[in-house]
Amino acid sequence: MAKQDINFLEKTLTLAGRAEGYTSPNPMVGAVIVKNNREISCGFHKKSGLPHAEVEAINNTKVNVSGATLYVNLEPCCHFGKTPPCVDKIISSKIKRVVVATKDPNPVVCGKSINKLKKAGIKVSVGLLKEKASRLNEVFFKNMKEKRPFVAVKLAQSLDGKIAAANGSSKWITGEKSRKFARRLRDKYDCILVGINTVVKDNPRLNGFKKNPYKAVIDPALRISRNSCLIKNNSQKLIIFASEKAKKKSFRNAKVFFIGEENGKLPVKKILSALYQNGITSVFVEGGSETAAKFFEEKLADKIYFFLSPKILGGKKALASIGGKGFPLKDCPQVNDMMIEKIGQDILITGYPDYGRQ
Amino acid sequence: MAKQDINFLEKTLTLAGRAEGYTSPNPMVGAVIVKNNREISCGFHKKSGLPHAEVEAINNTKVNVSGATLYVNLEPCCHFGKTPPCVDKIISSKIKRVVVATKDPNPVVCGKSINKLKKAGIKVSVGLLKEKASRLNEVFFKNMKEKRPFVAVKLAQSLDGKIAAANGSSKWITGEKSRKFARRLRDKYDCILVGINTVVKDNPRLNGFKKNPYKAVIDPALRISRNSCLIKNNSQKLIIFASEKAKKKSFRNAKVFFIGEENGKLPVKKILSALYQNGITSVFVEGGSETAAKFFEEKLADKIYFFLSPKILGGKKALASIGGKGFPLKDCPQVNDMMIEKIGQDILITGYPDYGRQ
User: Fold this and answer.
1) What kind and span of H or E run contains B107?
2) How far apart are CA A345 and CA A347, in angstroms?
3) Which distant-in-sequence residues (6+ apart) come within 8 Å of A228 by Cβ?
4) Is B160 within 8 Å of A157 when comparing Cβ atoms?
């Protein structure tokens, strides 16, 4: 039984992941319905506003689901959102068992649906593949628990930790495959964020592969040029964070937030908060050196994607991938759950900074 | 036949490698003797002055080796060194076939032995597993071809390329397993080299795991303290390189070479040349930042061992693993044949810098 449960839950995760990057602000959810040990239907949540996975699965089959088992990676909802509560649909369709990987961290739900199902006489199992399921929805879990966007920091550095050579050259440190891979990563996130120095130096477009994500620029003195690609090519998807002290300017295609400085800098916490209030659930930070440093120093970088190119740049004056004040060794973030893979000639290291020892 | 040849040659490599770190200035060599498709003897070169692998193998069996095949990873010698030429022994023992992985790069040999064997009516095959065999003896090949020691540079850095935090703390960046691993690596090399800053800051011992290697310090102004571990604990195995301009001093336990500066620095080429003249065939450079940089800038770092700890140190003023002037991106060394492995929590990246594009 447990083995079958694992297999079908694995499938819900795979199904859920198919909509990665498109369900925001909702989590990714997949559902499988099994009757007499055979799968009779499945479904996944494709986009906010469209049916939830459980409803998709129930509606996707002509077989009577009465007496069947429903597998789902996240606790079904019990509240009216853009669609009616799934719990009611499950109860009315006479499903007799529900297997859930994780509780919904949303305080509006968090266990309530499970109780409601149980009260209706449905057998409920919770917790199998819990960690895998929470990791899949790491963005949603962060949103629900901390009421802020999930932050991933991406870097492309030489083996010795430089993002630009001593003479300033930085195009390209990593190979074509890595750059393509990084562009696809953008599709996972709601918003791509960079510092103004990166805009001035590289004039990037920051587009995704399939998606046109929001772009945010931390630009205290509002130095961004009207001729930059970001200003020219974005219609209402560019957000600029400037200091309250900056000379007020407006841009046809961009929204400018003027925020108060702290210790002479724009606090990234306030920036994230403003982004979250505007519906952005996840941020992909693409540098540069000082911008990345801020997110680590404020303990707000939740995930890293470090691309290491097999190059030695050297140079005391070359630009370090992460600048700022830096950490003392005993208090520095430790990266957990590291994964290492080769992308073309480069190495990609992903992981989760842990600030816990501080 | 080819498959059997590969298997027995693989075994010669394994045998040869058993003496890694102990054969200097000789190469590592293993030999296997096969008669009627069965191995009847084997041997390896254990130490300079002791018998060569071929002779070991011939002497190790009571079976008559006449008509047998000899497998050996390096072309047998044909010159008198500390022991008589192996070629004569092979011929007189009536071996009928010799399978050699690579020619001896030593100009005194380089193909001459193969010709001598052929002239004696012995069938000789050369070249199978050639690359693997040259890599095993990368130190010896470098010595023979460039008349200088092989140089490996070891670094222990945070994920973002720092070898010390902004506040100077650097103990320890990598974990215990990596540090133990690095100590074992020292056993592979004749000499461990550091810059004086590392001595002043860390006061290291630089001992191997089983071996007591030579230690070299680049110390232009001859600042090393008589109380440092290196001076106190070494009997005649410490070599210090100082500038001709430095105030002359002598140390009971150390040899001091005074060498001429170039552009205000001690040229590492001259340092390597002095070491080679003193019988040192391989150097393991353990930093710091500026010392490592010199070897890359002079295109003399042949191999890297980069230990990456899962830490984020950050800090504009933190110490970069490789300092110096640095390279422009288009001319920087590219690391080839990278190998990536986990050592405890850390990542070890080994590879071979290629300066060829310059």
Assistant:
1) none
2) 7
3) A199, A203
4) yes
Q: Do B326 and A332 touch (CB under 8 A)?
A: no
The amino acid at residue A113 is: S
Check: CB of residue B96 under 8 Å from CB of residue B57.
Answer: no
Q: Is the dihedral of CA A266, A267, A269, A273 positive or negative?
A: negative
The two beta strands, B97-102 and A150-158, are unpaired
Confirm if B289 and B321 have CB atoms less than 8 A apart. yes
Q: List the single residue in A311, A314, A338 with the smallest CB-CB distance to B323.
A: A314
Rounded Cα gap, residues B90 and B68, in angstroms: 10
Distance CA A169, CA A28 (A): 40
User: DSSP secondary-structure letter at B73?
Assistant: E
Answer whether A320's CB lies under 8 Å from A155's CB. no
Tokens representing B143 are: 């010595």
Helix (H, G, I), strand (E, B) or coil at A350: strand
Q: B339: which strand partners?
A: B350
- A321 and B155 in contact by Cβ < 8 A? no
User: Pick from A308, A312, A338: which is nearest to B333 by CB?
Assistant: A312
- Whole-number pLDDT of residue A1: 60
Q: What is the CA radius of gyration of chain B?
A: 23
Structure letter (DSSP) for residue B27? P
The answer to whether residue B173 neighbours chain A at the CB level (below 8 Å) is: yes
**B357 touches A: beta carbon within 8 Å:** no
The answer to whether residues A327 and A333 touch, using CB atoms and an 8 Å cutoff, is yes
Q: 């030593």: which residue's tokens?
A: B106
A138 carries an active-site annotation:
no
Residue B287 touches chain A, beta carbons under 8 Å: no
Whole-angstrom Cα distance, residue B255 to residue B283?
A: 17
Distance between A116 CA and the closest CA of chain B, angstroms? 44
DSSP B311: B
Are A309 and A345 contacting, i.e. CB atoms less than 8 angstroms apart? yes
User: Mean pLDDT for each 10-residue chunk of chain A (358 residues)?
Assistant: 90 96 94 96 95 94 94 91 86 96 90 94 96 97 96 98 94 96 96 96 92 94 94 85 92 92 93 97 95 97 98 97 96 96 97 83
B contact test, residue of A329, A341, A354 with most B CBs within 10 A: A329
pLDDT of B189 reads: 96
